[in-house]
Each structure stands twice: as structure tokens, then as C-alpha cells.
Specification:
The protein has 373 residues and is α/β, with parallel strands linked by helices. The protein folds into two domains: 68-174 and 310-339, Rossmann fold (3-Layer(aba) Sandwich), CATH 3.40.50.2300; 177-308 and 343-353, Response regulator (Rossmann fold, 3-Layer(aba) Sandwich). Helices cover 36% and strands 18% of the residues. The chain has twelve helices and 14 strands. The chain has helices at 18-27, 36-39, 85-98, 112-124, 141-149, 177-192, 210-223, 238-251, 263-275, 292-299, 313-327, 350-353, and strands at residues 9-11, 14-16, 71-76, 101-106, 129-134, 154-160, 172-174, 195-201, 227-233, 257-260, 284-288, 305-308, 337-338, 342-344. The strands form three sheets. Strands 4-3-5-6-7-13 form a six-stranded parallel β-sheet, with helices on both faces. The chain has a six-stranded mixed β-sheet with strand order 9-8-10-11-12-14, with helices on both faces. Helix 4 runs parallel beside helix 5, helix 6 packs across helix 7 and helix 8 (238-251) crosses helix 9 (263-275). The longest helix has 16 residues, at 177-192. The N and C termini lie far apart (48 Å).
Length: 373
């Protein structure tokens, strides 16, 4: 595919790039209410030091020199999955600040070859930077190295193969996946104590979710708790995941805990818990990510927890890192970035439910978020 460059815009008889238009608009304050980050930026007093000694510059353009309209390509393994809605909002908000553009491409169904094809297309199409969800330990390595050798910065996001040093990306932006699994495993031991437990996973071996199960299993084993566990595959689509989870429960009604390591399976666990009234029967449940139904069912008491890995930041930070790499000639930008782990429970879920936002992907509206009451 070709990568779109800016169409010049007419302003006062002078043709301006889209980036310059964005910057000038930001200088008038038009973006101040449109991008949440700007509300948190303390502006220095104007000293006349801006280009040409003019006043009124804001942090939206900062003192960056004028740059080309860099185009960054994001290659994803499940391009239509609702988990990545806030990721795409993060990309959009970062590019509104910096005047960049992006493509969102890859595979709808975790087809690694489709993702590799998209990566090769981005390289041949002259992308200015590439962000890849590295869900396979080997398949992306050669084209990523080719891109980097050709001056194209490559970062990984959401998934990082087998981790630092195992692939040639410049930085990883996402959750510590194995570490988060360990924390989930510790929580499982705390909640369940003993008895049979099931761990659901959409696509075993996929390196954005398999490390979570591996971490959970390690924590359960290390605890010495009398917990029997098994791993069940659910599939990549929400209806299939729900069906597999319900079917499992109907055949294993002695289960003491049902847990999942991906967004769709987590929602399916929550729905199954509600349908059969399992929380009232003492069954424990938890998982990952912030699909609206998952949050609602936690609030209703049907599920014990879900884990927030801040998907918005997995789009926002890569744009800034690739931009700085280009701006600095490779001297700055890429940095290992752990987007974190937060257990969302009935005690703190109100902050998510009361504040629909771009940060969680359940609202397109740009606004300043007030703390939950």
C-alpha cells in the first residue's frame, strides 16, 4: 500500500503542510480542550524566545522544528478487537499533538503471515516508523532488522516475542506480561485457596497472552497451594469464547475458580458467572482488560477482578518514541516502557464506569476526567 502524505492547505495565500496547520491551530488554543494531555502541561512564561521572537507558542508544538508529516505504521494481530480501541485513540491523540499520521494494519485473526506481509509492505512503502505487536518469537525478526538497517525505527507494543534481547526492536511499550501473570497467580491462590481451577486463553502460544498463563502457573506452583489447574483454549472471537467457557463449566461444575488471560475470554467468564450465579456459590473469577461488560459484571459482584494494562498508552507512547527517534537522528526516543498493572475490583471499578473516556475506549469525547466520586 502507499503511505499518504499531507495535502497542502491554503491559508492567507500561503500553502501550509497539515503539520504546520495543526501547530498554528494549537497556538491559538483550539487544541487545548481537544487533547487531554494539554490540560496537564504547565506552560512556561513567554520570554520571546520562540522562533522569530513571537509570543503565544504552547506545548502543543513546543519548540520542535518544523518536520515532515511522519507516517507511522501499527501492525496488529487482531485489528478489529475492541481491546485496541483505546490504543487507536492513543495513536490519534499523539498525532494530534505532533502532526503525524498512521496506518492501522495487520491481521483480524492473529495470522502471523498476514502480519509479516503488512510489515514488509510498510518497509517497501517507506514508512517513517513501525510499531509491531510481536506475537511470534521468530517470524518478525528479519524484516524488523531490515527496517532498522534501512533507518526505519521499529518498536514493539502489547507483545514482545520472548522479551528483551530476543528480537531486534528498539524498545517495547506494554505490560510485563509474565510478571502480570505471576501477580494474577498470587491473587488466584489468595482467592481460591485449594481445589480445581481453570485458565482460559484465546490462542495458546501467542506471545501477548501465553506469558500470562505461564506466570500464573509459576505462581500457583511456587505457592505450594493444593490447587489443580488446567488450560482451556477458547478461540479469537467473542461468541466462540463464551460458548467454550459455558461448555467447560457445564462439564466441570466442581470448579472453584475460573480465570482468563485475554479480554474476550475474560468477558466470557464474567457472563458465565452471571448466567449460573456462580459467585453466590463461592466460585472465584478474574481476568484481564476493560471491556465494558466485564466492568459492569465486576460492579454487580459476578467477578472478582480484571487487570488494567492501559491500552491507550500502548498507542500514545510509540508515536512519541518514533517521532523523537526521527527528530533526533536516532539519538533519542526508544525506551523500554512498562504500561503497568492495576487490579480493578468492586472497590475501584466506579472510576471506570463513571468516566467513559478515550483512555478506556468507551467514549470518543475529548474531555478532562474528574476523579470518581
Amino acid at each position: 500500500m502507499g503511505y499518504r502524505r499531507a495535502e497542502a492547505s491554503q491559508l492567507g495565500g500561503k500553502r501550509l503542510s497539515r503539520r504546520e496547520m495543526l501547530r498554528r491551530t494549537a497556538m491559538t488554543g483550539a487544541l487545548a480542550g481537544a487533547v487531554p494531555l494539554l490540560a496537564a502541561c504547565d506552560q512556561p512564561e513567554d520570554t520571546g524566545a520562540a522562533s522569530g521572537g513571537s509570543s503565544g507558542a504552547t506545548a502543543a508544538g513546543g519548540l520542535f522544528p518544523d518536520t515532515p508529516e511522519y507516517n507511522f505504521v501499527f501492525i496488529n494481530h487482531v485489528t478489529t478487537n475492541p481491546f485496541f480501541v483505546p490504543t487507536q485513540y492513543g495513536i490519534e491523540d499523539a498525532e494530534a499533538l505532533l502532526g503525524t499520521t498512521h496506518q492501522w494494519t495487520g491481521s483480524e485473526a492473529a495470522d502471523v503471515q498476514e502480519m509479516v506481509d503488512s510489515l514488509n509492505t510498510a518497509i517497501s512503502g517507506g514508512a517513517d516508523g513501525i510499531a509491531v505487536a510481536v506475537v511470534d518469537p521468530q517470524a518478525f525478526n528479519d524484516p524488523m532488522q531490515e527496517a532498522i538497517d534501512g533507518g526505519i525505527p521499529v518498536v514493539s507494543y502489547n507483545a514482545d516475542g520472548e522479551g528483551l534481547g530476543t528480537n531486534p526492536r528498539l524498545a517495547y511499550i506494554g505490560q510485563d506480561l509474565f510478571g502480570s501473570g505471576v501477580e494474577m497467580g498470587n491473587r488466584i491462590v489468595e482467592l481460591v485457596g485449594e481445589g480445581p481451577v481453570v485458565l482460559f486463553i484465546a490462542t495458546p502460544g501467542q506471545l501477548n497472552i501465553q506469558p500470562r498463563i505461564d506466570g500464573a502457573v509459576q505462581a500457583i506452583k511456587d505457592s505450594g497451594a493444593n490447587i489443580e489447574f488446567e488450560q482451556i483454549t477458547t478461540g479469537a472471537e467473542l461468541p466462540e469464547e463464551l460458548s467454550k467457557i459455558e461448555s467447560y463449566y457445564n462439564g466441570n461444575k466442581d470448579v472453584k475458580g475460573m480465570f482468563a488471560v485475554d479480554a474476550g475470554s475474560t468477558q466470557g467468564v464474567a457472563q458465565t458467572m452471571e448466567k449460573f450465579g456462580l459467585a453466590e456459590q463461592g466460585v472465584k473469577a478474574g481476568g484481564y482488560d476493560l471491556l465494558p461488560m466485564t466492568l459492569e459484571l465486576i460492579d454487580a459482584g459476578h467477578m472478582d477482578f480484571t487487570i488494567d494494562q492501559q491500552p491507550y498508552l500502548q498507542g500514545f507512547y510509540p508515536v512519541f518514541q518514533m517521532f523523537l527517534y526521527k527528530l533526533s537522528g536516532g539519538l533519542s526516543g526508544p525506551a523500554e516502557t512498562n504500561t503497568g498493572l492495576l487490579f480493578v475490583t468492586k472497590e475501584n471499578v466506579a472510576g471506570y464506569l463513571e468516566n467513559a473516556s478515550r483512555f478506556e475506549g468507551d467514549s470518543e469525547e475529548q474531555k478532562i476526567i474528574e476523579p470518581a466520586s
